[in-house]
Design brief:
The structure is a single chain. By secondary structure, the protein is α+β, with helices and mostly antiparallel strands. It is built from eight helices and twelve strands. Strands 1, 2, 3, 4, 5, 6, 7, 8, 9, 10, 11 and 12 form a twelve-stranded mixed beta sheet that branches.
């Protein structure tokens, strides 16, 4: 992948997700471009495109952080699906994690994607999504605004729960307008205007308190993604806040040596 490919990769992503059944959200253009450029800078060996002449028809982006490999993006233009382009891209992105001890993929409900990630030898964890306008979640006031001094707490909790810290990806999310909320010695959550984007905590009560604070800060409808069976604490908080649950979201795939992956709500971009 080269710098000149960024906008074409974004457009292929828009077309690929628009072609899927269901109401999957589209990423804002500026955020999508920033994500691609950020990961090209940190993981050039994990960023690949497939092209027909001058036209990009598919892309894959993978990252590695402290021994944890994640697939940030795999998209193929609808007209090229079934041609083997996706398989070739996935092989190259997966090779970026050859030395990794753990792997994470977040998948759409597309049957081809689900099959491809199972073929990597990963375990599937079906996921729900919750969405709506929160109905006054009760908060204790212990959650505060985060700042740069919280970097050690964030990394420590990431390593405990996920098996590896996110490193530069936290700053990348903050640069795109995410708000950081922190529970002292308990964990953190990153939230955008429309979604809870990443949450990690030492235990379920801390995680629930962070999620309630994120929902209480919402000024309109908000979405909470990747509610696997391990995140029952999050499903209960969403139910209490009056959000609607749906089961057609997709699945989290994991394999190798990771943390317990709970209490944890992964980032769609940075896993």
């Amino acid at each position: 992948m080269a710098a000149a490919d960024v906008e074409m990769v974004r457009l292929v992503s828009v077309n690929a997700f628009a072609a899927l059944e269901g109401d999957l959200p589209q990423t804002q253009p500026a955020y999508a471009r920033h994500r691609i450029e950020h990961l090209m800078g940190t993981d050039p060996g994990g960023c690949w495109v497939a092209a027909r002449g001058e036209r990009v028809v598919g892309a894959a982006i993978a990252l590695c952080r402290e021994g944890v490999w994640g697939l940030s993006l795999l998209v193929v233009d609808p007209g090229e699906q079934g041609s083997g382009v996706g398989r070739a891209l996935l092989e190259r992105a997966a090779a970026h994690g050859d030395e990794a001890r753990g792997r994470i993929v977040l998948s759409s409900p597309d049957p081809r994607a689900l099959s491809a990630y199972l073929a990597l030898g990963l375990t599937i964890h079906p996921a729900a999504c919750a969405q709506g306008r929160p109905r006054g979640p009760a908060v204790s006031g212990a959650v505060r605004e985060g700042h740069k001094g919280d970097a050690d707490l964030i990394a420590t909790v990431d390593r405990q729960v996920r098996g590896g810290a996110h490193g530069p990806d936290i700053e990348a999310m903050l640069r795109t307008g995410h708000r950081l909320l922190v529970l002292e010695d308990g964990g953190y959550v990153l939230v955008s205007d429309t979604a809870v984007s990443l949450l990690a905590a030492r235990d379920d009560p801390c995680a629930a308190e962070l999620l309630r604070a994120a929902l209480a800060a919402a000024e309109g409808e908000i979405r909470v993604d990747w509610l696997t069976s391990a995140q029952g604490w999050a499903a209960q908080v969403c139910r209490e806040a009056g959000l609607s649950l749906r089961l057609d979201w997709g699945a989290l795939f994991s394999g190798g040596e990771l943390g317990p992956m709970t209490p944890y709500l992964p980032s769609g971009a940075y896993l």
